Amino acid sequence: MHRVFFTICLLAWIASFNILRAENAPQAAAGVRELAGAPARLAWCQDAGDGSDAGAQGNNLRLMGFDTEDGLGERCILAGPSNFSRPIITPDGRKVIFSNRAEQKIYAVNFDGSGLQKLAAGVALAAWRDRATETDWIYAGTENNRSDYFNSAITAVRRFRLDKPEVAGNIWGKTPVNLDNFQLSADGRCAGALFPWPTAGLAALPDGEWKKIGDGCWPSLAPDNSLLMWIFDGAHRNLTMFRTGTGERWTINIASLPGIDGYEVYHPRWSSHPRFMVMTGPYKLGESSNRIRGGGREVEIYLGRFSADHGKIEKWARVTRNGHADFFPDAWIAAPEHAGADGAGASSAAVTDSAASQGAWPVSFEGLYYFWQNRSRANSFTDPADGRTIACRAEARGRAKFGRNFEMMPSGGAFVSDGGAGTLIEKCAASGQLALEVLLKPGTAGTNDTNILPIAGFPAPGGKWNFLLGQRGGRLVFLMRTGAGGEDRILDLCPMPESRPGHVIVSCSTSSAACYLDGAQVFAADSVTGGNWSYADPARPRYGALVFGNLLLQEYPLAPGGNAPAWKGALENVAVYARWIGPAEAAKKFKAFAAGMAKRADLPKLSVRAVLLSEPAAPAPSSIAPYRRALLAGHYRVEKTVEGKSPGSEILAARWAIMDGALLPPRPGAAPLAQALRLELYSDRPELEGERLIMESTRYDLPLYYILDD
Prior knowledge:
The protein is mainly β. The chain is 8% helix and 42% strand. It is globular, with a radius of gyration of 28 Å.
């Protein structure tokens, strides 16, 4: 009886779905066929439940397909319900590869739903055809956090033959990568990916160099050999396009088309043809802070065609009209044989961002432990001792943030490296030497204050430091923990540069110390004894890392200045060595650094008095995960321009609302009182591209500014 009832319900559902499909099929097929100018197929997963599974994590999904040539419109390939994660159409358009994330298994099925087969363990990332042998390869990996799609990553990427899955090999293992999007150039020599989120970049395969392109999510690499790439922005509305060979960049809004109407979009992905992309939207449900997780039955699939120069999306077609939430689309566009291989010619030689390939600063990698240029770079190097590739990171804590040139600005917090302090202790103990190199941009004027303002160092338990470069009054000092009792010795190095950046190297051994400013020695001392360093502190595990700024401020992220002094400058080009650097090498390092330092122009100053008309409510920090930082874009009426060129009578302006997972207090002067605002165009602040931007205004005609805080 139950089986009969289930069968009747299933047939009723299929009948209702087929009626909807029949009504929409001719219109949708004609629109997509006209846009593509060729036969096209799309595959995606559809939420059969409440429409909230935008990460395709659950088991209430259908595998869907659409073919412009069969007259059926959108239809089920596999009805499920099951987990059909990240469908990928094979290069010939005949099969769909999908993953079951619960099982961690990869499957293939013919586009008509026949021939279902299990291929391998893991999750599928991409499908690529070797044109020389006409062999199809599936790129895959194993998730390290499969319970949370938004934080999941692959530790190693392998590939296997579609026709012979037992023929397999590793392809990338230098860094973890995220699931979306790992895509290859036509010749298979380069891959675009997250290495991992939010670092988007381009890698040479197999296991070659990799180059950071920017920060954001859903990067996508053109399927030809042009190495054209995009990164999806933190507002979930724009693509930032990059010509990786020339550095040219521009922005394309993909949320303003009819049907989306300015709401957030998601799942952007390049199709098999370089002129076409797919995405899903609009996302109207959930909190304004993260509507993606809300999904909704209005979420449909759109196919867009780029202009010939990829400067804009010149035309869109809506693919689905079904009253269900549709996610993770992939599109295949028929094209003349080998058309996908056209382009400027991808080359692994074009991926030259790692330190080993730059041939400039820092000149030598011998004894190098930590290397961080700025946030726009990969910050990786090859250890000459063992050939390992080491990627170094700096995570903002408290109110620390990145500057316009991607430098660290630790005031109000600190930047923390990704651990490994035990290794540093071992290396320094073995060599009896340490060197710290950094470019400082002064921001704290010299005072009579006797406090040491932390700039860069290695914390020890109990709120102490193993070593610390800091500012005391108007001078640079270096603190070392020395002797068996852990006493501190403070070395008075030199005056702090006040009107220009300064290239500083502090070099120490078991018997002496030296300091070099802009390549010249400015300090030397003998009878310096270091030792008794420690880093283990169960109560503060973050102390097992290098810190730039004042780590103690992280304990009080909402208090103005916390209860500890803050250094308000900026720093970049940081290197830490477990060896001595002498005068000749210091001069070479400064020369190499100075030669590569481009002159940076100041932005026009703009100050206004403005009234806040509307602003999204500040969300709970947990609601924006995996982001830990977010800005709110408010709508303002400008009352008066105090300095600079008038921005007009109305503007959008974004302020920081969440930093390091904590809410910030609102700006003083709530509506309807006029506020004093110092502004810069948001587009002039590239370090913000990957940050979560929360906005509800549909006034896209208004300029968007960034509010500078003190």
